Structures are given as structure tokens and as C-alpha cells.
């Protein structure tokens, strides 16, 4: 559904899988599923995305992925989950409480590079790149279809770049790929369902829903990070 335009729901996947397997395994299982569903999303949104926004975000995102790869053996995943969750909760609460955030902001290279790098890094570590991405893109107030398309293209490129380091770290092993293959069919169905829902949801409601979704998922990430640190 996330690849069909309902971007925030995708962040629930790794936390849900982490209830029955390690977060590292869950991340390895989900990457191939994301790649397959990205194809459907790219076909659907091939003409509906903002090239300028992508140009501002992607160089930083690739840098963030490289940093995640270089520090993979040093990073405490729980700390990353906690940081991502706090960023997401802070932004979501501001967006819901302060009407001023409803005014469109223009894209710029400084913010785009910074939040792109954070999104790339956190996406590499735990597929949790959506909150930092939202912090930069949501205030731009793109049309809901263009927003969904830009999100789809951004994370499709990020996921493709992640394939190489994930493979080198052993996360694309036969067991993970076998489970991912099973999950691809419901993922494709989810893309179609997301596209249908996007067409009937009013734009203001769309932004409110993704903000509430960001708040809920970010709170879950904070919980996951704290419980892991305190375990």
C-alpha cells in the first residue's frame, strides 16, 4: 500500500516482522519485497513526481546509505530507532498543532541534502527513512499524487542502492529471499489497493492521515528503541 501512494503505512512492516524475528532479519526480508513493489509504484507514478525535490534529496540519501554501510558494525539499532522516532513525533505534533506548517515551503539544497542523508542512513539501518523524508517534503505541500509519486521514486532509488551493501552484509541470504518471495504477492496486491485509495482520499485528508500515521509509527519506533535499550 505504501508503494501505491499511502507512504506511511510501509514503516509498520519491519516493526511488525520484528515481533517474530530479529530486526536485522526483518530488514533483510523486506528489502526484496520493497524492490518488487517499487516496480509497480514506478509504473503507476512514472509521470507524477517532482524532479527538483528528488535532485535535492538523492545525493544526501546516497551519502547516508554509504555512511550506514561503513558503520554497520558499530551502530546500535535501538539508538537509531529512538532518534528516528523522536524526529517523527516532533514533526507530526508540530504539523498537527501549528497551522503555519500548512503554508508551502520551497525546496532548497541545504535542507534537502541534510534530511536526504538522514533518510538514507535510517532507511539503510531499519527501513525507517520515511520520518526524515517527511520532515523535508511534507512542508513543500505537493499535490497528493505528485507527493506520492515523488516518495515512490525516491525510495525506489534508495532501495536499489541498498541492494549492494545488503548483499555484502549477508542479508540477502537464501532463507530471507525465500520468505521475501512469499511476501511479494500480497505486496503487489497492496500496491493496487493503495492506488485505489489514493484516488478517493481528498488532499487535505491525505496529508492529515500521513501525519497521524507518522505520529503513530514514530511512537512505535520510540517504544521499540527504549525497550531494546532497557532490556
What does the model show?
With 231 residues, this protein is an all-alpha fold. Helix 2 (23-44) packs across helix 8 (174-200), helix 3 crosses helix 5 (109-126) and helix 5 (109-126) packs antiparallel against helix 6. The mean pLDDT is 85. The protein has helices at residues 13-17, 23-44, 51-70, 77-97, 109-126, 130-137, 144-168, 174-200, 203-230. The longest helix has 28 residues, at 203-230. The N and C termini lie far apart (33 Å). It is 75% helix and 0% strand. The protein is built from nine helices and no strands.
Gross geometry: globular
Helix content: over 70%
Average pLDDT, rounded to a whole number, is 85
What integer value in Å does the Rg equal? 16 Å
Which blocks of ≥5 consecutive residues have pLDDT under 50?
A: none
List the secondary-structure elements in sequence, H or E: HHHHHHHHH
Number of strands: 0
User: Which structural class matches the secondary elements?
Assistant: mainly alpha
Q: Report on the biggest sheet.
A: none
Question: Percent of residues in beta strands?
Answer: under 5%
Count every helix, treating DSSP H or I runs of 4 or more residues as helices: 9
* End-to-end distance: 33 Å
Characteristic key phrases:
mainly alpha; globular
Topology:
Blueprint: H1 13-17, H2 23-44, H3 51-70, H4 77-97, H5 109-126, H6 130-137, H7 144-168, H8 174-200, H9 203-230
Give a quick precis of the structure.
By secondary structure, this protein is an all-alpha fold. It is built from 9 helices and no strands.
Amino acid at each position: 500500500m505504501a508503494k501505491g501512494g499511502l507512504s506511511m503505512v510501509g514503516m509498520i512492516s519491519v516493526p511488525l516482522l520484528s515481533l517474530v524475528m530479529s530486526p536485522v532479519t526483518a530488514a533483510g526480508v523486506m528489502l526484496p519485497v520493497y524492490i518488487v513493489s517499487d516496480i509497480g509504484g514506478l509504473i503507476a507514478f512514472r509521470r507524477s513526481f517532482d524532479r527538483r525535490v528528488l535532485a535535492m534529496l538523492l545525493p544526501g540519501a546516497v551519502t547516508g546509505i554509504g555512511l550506514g554501510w561503513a558503520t554497520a558494525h558499530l551502530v546500535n539499532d535501538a539508538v537509531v530507532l529512538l532518534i528516528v522516532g523522536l524526529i517523527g513525533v516532533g514533526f507530526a505534533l508540530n504539523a498537527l498543532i501549528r497551522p503555519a506548517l500548512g503554508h508551502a515551503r520551497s525546496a532548497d539544497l541545504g535542507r534537502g541534502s541534510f534530511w536526504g542523508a538522514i533518510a538514507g542512513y535510517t532507511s539503510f539501518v531499519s527501513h525507517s527513512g520515511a520520518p526524515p523524508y517527511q520532515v523535508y517534503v511534507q512542508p513543500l505541500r505537493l499535490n497528493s499524487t505528485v507527493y506520492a509519486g515523488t516518495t515512490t521514486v525516491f525510495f525506489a532509488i534508495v532501495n536499489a542502492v541498498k541492494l549492494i551493501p545488503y548483499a555484502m552484509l549477508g542479508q540477502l541470504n537464501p532463507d530471507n529471499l525465500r520468505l521475501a518471495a512469499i511476501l511479494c504477492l500480497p505486496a503487489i496486491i497492496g500496491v493496487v489497493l493503495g492506488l485505489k485509495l489514493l484516488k478517493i482520499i481528498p488532499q487535505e485528508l491525505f496529508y492529515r492521515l500521513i501525519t497521524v500515521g507518522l505520529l503513530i509509527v514514530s511512537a512505535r519506533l520510540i517504544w521499540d528503541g527504549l525497550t531494546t535499550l532497557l532490556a
